[in-house]
Amino acid sequence: MYNDVKDQDFMIIAVAEESRGEETAREFVDEAKAEYITLIDREHHIADLYNMVNVPQSVWIDEQGRIVRPAETAGSHDSWRAMNREDMSVPDDAAALIATAQETYVNAVRDWAVNGASSKHAFSAEQARAHLELPDANVALTNANFRLGQYLHAKGNTDEAEIFLNTASQLRPESWNIYRQTMNLKELGPMGLAADEAFFEKVDGLGAGRYYPPPDMEGFPKELGFEPPS
Amino acid sequence: MVTVLTESGACDVASAKAKGNDLWVKRDDVEMAIGWNLKPEGLCQGEVCVPMPRSNADEYVNDGNVNISAWWKLMNRPVLHDNDGETWMLGASAQDRAAALSSLDAPDFRLPDLDGKMHSLSDFRGKRVFLTTWSSW
User: Fold this and answer.
1) Tens-place pLDDT, residues B100-129
2) A66 and A10 belong to one structural domain
3) Residues A144 and A113 in one domain
4) 116-175 in A: which are within 8 Å (CB) of B?
5) In terms of domains, do A23 and A125 share one?
6) Which residues 38-97 in chain B show a CB within 8 A of chain A?
7) A10: part of which helix (H) or strand (E)?
8) Closest by alpha carbon to A143, among A67, A69, A15, A53?
9) Are residues A10 and A119 in the same domain?
10) ipTM of this complex prediction, to 2 decimal places
11) Are residues A33 and A98 in the same domain?
């Protein structure tokens, strides 16, 4: 996508929320042959500043440094949850929804990259404010716990780190960032992902709730796309 | 040695003394530790000053020492510390975060790339920026 529009005064900043640091991120970046800028965020500072709770989430920022779309799911869709957990296969209809969601979002970003403020996907200031989710005191306390836990972990004080990281998870259970990074710091799960039984149990607990809340975007599939476990 | 964590990073403060849930530092080290300054008006950062509570002033400033954790709590900000009182986290306020987002001015940041080179959002002023997150986990 970047190659199409890089002459249009457009830039992608891809931030890795990665407390294990650049060596963990690097293999994924090399794999993607990224031609845009990749930054490493051990402390999840971007999630803190922009009040993000999952990856991938994105923010659109205009030439003046103004937010034109606040933090939202960057094209991912909940129908991944229909995946067969034995062989990781995804049913065709779910795969189709995932593809539509991805394509719709990428096309919208491309449209904005080319057309700027006149893109129908760029919010007005009033719309952008209406889509903001503002942090409260509990979020501030959560982020303080995460940051201290992450710092202690990096210093090798893993036992005490775990106390603060777990507290952060408990204070804000809707933050998949904090939950999964904490799992990841404790132990690397299958395929290096923090996706063990407890993770899937937590996902199932969402029921009809969303792991990836759909962005408010024309053409983006809003339906869950499968029958959630009751 | 006590380490104080704030938004600006980790700072080792030689004069800092932890007493239970309070963290006292020498008056001259307050700015280095938390980026705020003790003035006659109170605790100040730029134009903003938080006045000293009158009834129990000695719980905030005493004998040339400043209880930075008490000031932090007075400002409605989270304070945490490890068991030994060697590492203190003075967290950002929810009000500041919410006000920054509500202004729609995208909060600036400074982070390293894979080669350790630092980049700020403000480096890209004049461009449209698609800021997106990902992870390995």
Assistant:
1) 999 999 999 999 999 999 999 999 999 999
2) yes
3) no
4) 116, 125, 128-129, 132, 134-141, 143-145, 147-148, 151-152, 155, 157, 160, 164
5) yes
6) 76-83, 87, 89-94, 97
7) strand A10-17
8) A53
9) yes
10) 0.96
11) yes
